[in-house]
User: Which sequence fits this backbone?
């Protein structure tokens, strides 16, 4: 491997090698990356003060070279002629690089997804069709189900985790959304994508979080309390009675984010839907009324979904003879 302008000198203890203090490519790349990061931060601060957003091209022109220089400097500092060198500051630089890369990848994914959603919504609004609206809603449900299964510490074997999570989440979210469309929104037609998809998206996203937390709490508690459940079943308890405390734990875990959001709304945070309507020029009273409806929809859908989840999970985990199918609960 070439030296890249670096020299090495003996560590005071006589055994380790330490990087030279002489300037090299790594030092130059590090300084250049730090300057570009500083320029990016200054542009963001300036945009906040002037209420003018920074152009996307400017962000790309600043961020991408900064990442390349940062990666180059980190590489030159770690891989040397004498082998690997991972000092304290080098490790910090490596961790920082990974954090920035993950954030950038998430930002790119967000931009692509939102751009695709904008194109799809434009098409849907131009051609109001129940089949197109239903297809998009189905895709949303399937992707949400994948997110539920991906973060489970313990999973139900086979396709049970995905099937149980999707069915409970979809049943609760769609039922609550249809109820709101038919009784409060009164859209004409009721499947109009301008109303159906945004409402379903808000309810589905929060229900997905509740179902994921509830299912993870339930399956983890079943694995942890195995001996207790078996002892109660041997003493004549039904599967519902033996697993009732686990259902309470799952319901509490699933509803905690929603309850915290409802308690803090208006005092600690302003919800996105209400803020968007106010920025768009709507009457604050109307915006608050819509936000109250959304919060109640989210709470109802989450509670309904977790209750259905517990009932279905008990049926999947235990058979009608009150025996637990431990093979259906495995590590994630």
Assistant:
């Amino acid at each position: 491997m070439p030296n890249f302008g670096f020299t090495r000198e003996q560590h005071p203890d006589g055994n380790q090698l330490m990087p030279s203090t002489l300037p090299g490519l790594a030092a130059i790349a590090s300084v250049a990356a730090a300057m570009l990061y500083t320029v990016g931060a200054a542009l963001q601060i300036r945009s906040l003060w002037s209420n003018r957003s920074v152009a996307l091209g400017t962000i790309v022109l600043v961020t991408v070279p900064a990442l390349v220089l940062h990666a180059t400097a980190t590489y030159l500092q770690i891989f040397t002629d004498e082998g690997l060198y991972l000092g304290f500051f080098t490790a910090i630089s490596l961790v920082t690089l990974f954090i920035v890369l993950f954030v950038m990848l998430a930002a790119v994914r967000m931009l692509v997804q939102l751009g695709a959603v904008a194109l799809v919504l434009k098409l849907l609004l131009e051609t109001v069709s129940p089949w197109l609206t239903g297809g998009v809603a189905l895709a949303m449900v399937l992707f949400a189900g994948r997110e539920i299964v991906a973060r489970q510490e313990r999973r139900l074997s086979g396709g049970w985790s995905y099937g149980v999570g999707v069915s409970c989440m979809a049943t609760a979210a769609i039922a609550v959304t249809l109820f709101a469309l038919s009784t409060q929104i009164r859209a004409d037609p009721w499947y109009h994508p301008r109303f159906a998809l945004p409402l379903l998206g808000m309810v589905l996203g929060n229900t997905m979080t509740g179902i994921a937390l509830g299912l993870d709490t339930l399956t983890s508690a079943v694995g942890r309390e195995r001996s207790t459940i078996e002892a109660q079943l041997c003493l004549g308890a039904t599967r519902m009675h033996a697993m009732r405390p686990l259902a309470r734990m799952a319901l509490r875990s699933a509803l905690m984010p929603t309850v915290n959001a409802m308690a803090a709304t208006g005092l600690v945070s302003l919800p996105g839907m209400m803020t968007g309507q106010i920025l768009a020029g709507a009457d604050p009273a109307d915006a608050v009324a819509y936000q109250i409806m959304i919060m109640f929809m989210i709470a109802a859908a989450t509670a309904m979904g977790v209750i259905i989840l517990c009932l279905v999970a008990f049926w999947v985990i235990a058979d009608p003879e009150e025996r637990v199918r431990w093979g259906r609960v495995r590590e994630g």
